[in-house]
Specification:
This protein has about 120 residues and is mainly alpha-helical. It is about 65% helix and about 0% strand. It is elongated, with a radius of gyration of 22 Å.
């Protein structure tokens, strides 16, 4: 923030969170290199930076975040792309859906049993 104030009108207001000192976007190759180095230093198994994006979207959907919100986060042109790409890989989403349907049937059955 101090850097932004110091640069005043010369600050490149990109709206990005992580930037160069002047507000311009970080170069993707530099970000990838930094990420690979951190993975190595942490002795993690090989993972691509894109895998983090995929994981974030998958976990957001499995946590119940609306698909339109995830679509917007990822910059997808349609929620169909988001759904087709991410919801098919989450078993938890399938289990949640099955549980929701089961609760509807159980609820309907309980209501029918309470009628005179």
């Amino acid at each position: 923030m101090k850097q932004r104030i110091a640069l005043g009108p010369t600050w490149a207001n990109t709206g990005l969170v992580f930037t160069e000192d002047d507000g311009t976007p970080l170069h993707p190759a530099w970000v990838t290199t930094q990420f690979r180095q951190l993975v190595r230093e942490a002795e993690l198994p090989p993972i691509r930076l894109h895998d983090l994006r995929h994981g974030a979207a998958t976990h957001a959907l499995s946590a119940g975040v609306d698909v339109k919100v995830v679509q917007d986060m990822l910059g997808h042109s349609s929620s169909t792309l988001t759904r087709d790409t991410y919801t098919s890989v989450v078993d938890g989403v399938k289990h949640h859906a099955a549980g929701a349907v089961a609760r509807v049937f159980l609820s309907a059955g309980l209501q029918d049993n309470t009628r005179p």
